[in-house]
Amino acid sequence: MVDATGEITVPVSSDDVLALDEYTAVNLLSLGVTPIRAVNFFQLGEVDAILEAEGVDVFTGAPFTPNLEELSQSDAALVAGLNFPTIVEVRDTIDDEIAPTVLVDFLSSDWRAQLDLLASVTGTEDRLAELEDSVDSAIEELRDEIAAAGLEGATVSYLEETSGGISLSQSGRLAPSILEQVGLARPAVEQVEGTGVISELSEETLGDHDADFMIVETDLTIEPTVNESPLRSDDGVKVYVYGWSEDVVGSFRVLADLRRIVLDGEEPFGPDDQLQIWNEFVVPR
Amino acid sequence: MRSTPDSSIGLADDRDDAAGDRDSRVARDTFVRRTIGAIALLAAVGLGALLSLAVGTKPIAWGTVFDALASHDASSSDHVIVRELRLPRTLLGVAVGVALGAAGALMQGVTRNPLAGPGILGVNAGAAFAVVSGIWWLGTSNVLVLAWFAFAGAAVASVVVYLLGTAGRGGATPVRLALAGAALSALLGAWTSAVVLLDQQTLDAFRFWAVGSLEGRDDDVAWHVAPIIAVGLLLAFGVARQLNAVALGDDTARALGTRIGTTRTMSLVAVTLLCGGAVAVAGPIGFVGLVVPHVARAWFGPDQRWLLPTSALLGAALLLFCDTLGRVAARPSEIQVGIMTAAIGGPAFIILVRRARMAQL
Known about the structure:
The complex is a heterodimer. By secondary structure, chain A is α/β, with parallel strands linked by helices.
């Protein structure tokens, strides 16, 4: 098996998995595996409600810093995490002292590949197939409804606004690819090949991003302002969305928000609705 | 030939006259040189402002820029860019550059320390700590709210440094003030680091503020700090003559009738207003306050009556050029002005150090 740092052999186990970060913990939960413990590694608070609701024992230390002493007290059979630099640094120690470790590519925008790795080390491939079918069906359903409503080809501008300014996701990332799959089109200026993000987009260029729907993803660290810019056209629908993350929960959230915004003319889900999305779309039934 | 006493006196008078002529010629040359330099600086600020209005991420024709300024059409996106984005940003660039340039010259003059910059009084550290605290406790990212936090933090920090620097016998000396500033900066820096380490969201918001930028600040913010910076400038220009005497040493300055304590206090209040105002609206922009006075001194000499206003003008010109460059260097993205000034100021500082012009305060 090849994980994000090279070839590795780990025992297949869905029990006693230690998650090195909160997002890996949620990925494991989506596969039906409840980690015995999870580290609140990034501390962004986006998935706290899910972890709490699912009864995961969360350990909080300094952000971005694995606490080896604390980790060593976990009686884990398998350790899973992201190949974040500070984790890669101590990966060998975790491997030797705690349990075999598998790291998923931190920068990957392909949640299926990420879950594929976790499913293969936890023996939950069936559950992954179920999840993938579920997402694909939801995409297909929304595409049909958008077409039936005569909105196929409607333009959707999708930008992100954080404390670092405005940024633009390239076409290969999760939300842009879902927009394309459901039959919506981004403005020409946003159709940039790649799976990265163009950051620090100048406010002066905002006028080039006019569209039928102007969606700005934001987080809880700022009061978003992009849609209030004098350069934004008043002709389109302007909304702020939250939590369009590059994972399975993000996939369902993008689909649910698009349904509300484009078809129902409603406000998208709010920042506190993560648990609702989880319960409604992801939790194994 | 032996000269008579009368002819000796005549020769001495001739020498005095020649020296007097030479002095007045030197003074005249210096005045002309300074006047030419000042006019060039004014032109540079004007050119910088013009470029700042005309050049940006989105190319806009010069004719459209002038139209936008002369007869604004709110339905034209180009006019909106010029009037509502670039114009406030240009005015803010002038204000912040003037404040940082003048504050740097003032700090170097009052502390007689060529390495002194606006941060030496703990102003930047105080502002940073207050901003981090504001983000952490209130969860706000509002530019105007953070600006007031930054200003309050800068003001409190400089007052604490002044109290520490004047405590005990002997009163405030440049060394004591610099040490107090360094100590408080270290303490506040540690607290700031502790908060951002403990809270990821605060770190996210703070790390972009800490770079220093003029982007996204509207008229509102500029109008709030303009009076603060204006008062700081008036105070700075008011103590320029006394600072010339202070540069000769405390004893000589006292002998010349200068009230050293008052001069230092006025200078520190001016630095606090100038730096606090600048940091509040743009974040801690490095190198302007440190490098600009050295460049100005190389042309205009150490006379504070020239050095302060010309450092202010040079600071404004540098900031405008750096900000404009940052807008076009990475289209469609922007590079913050704090990064540009550091990228240009760093090499400039090394050149200055190698030429050993710094010590001539």
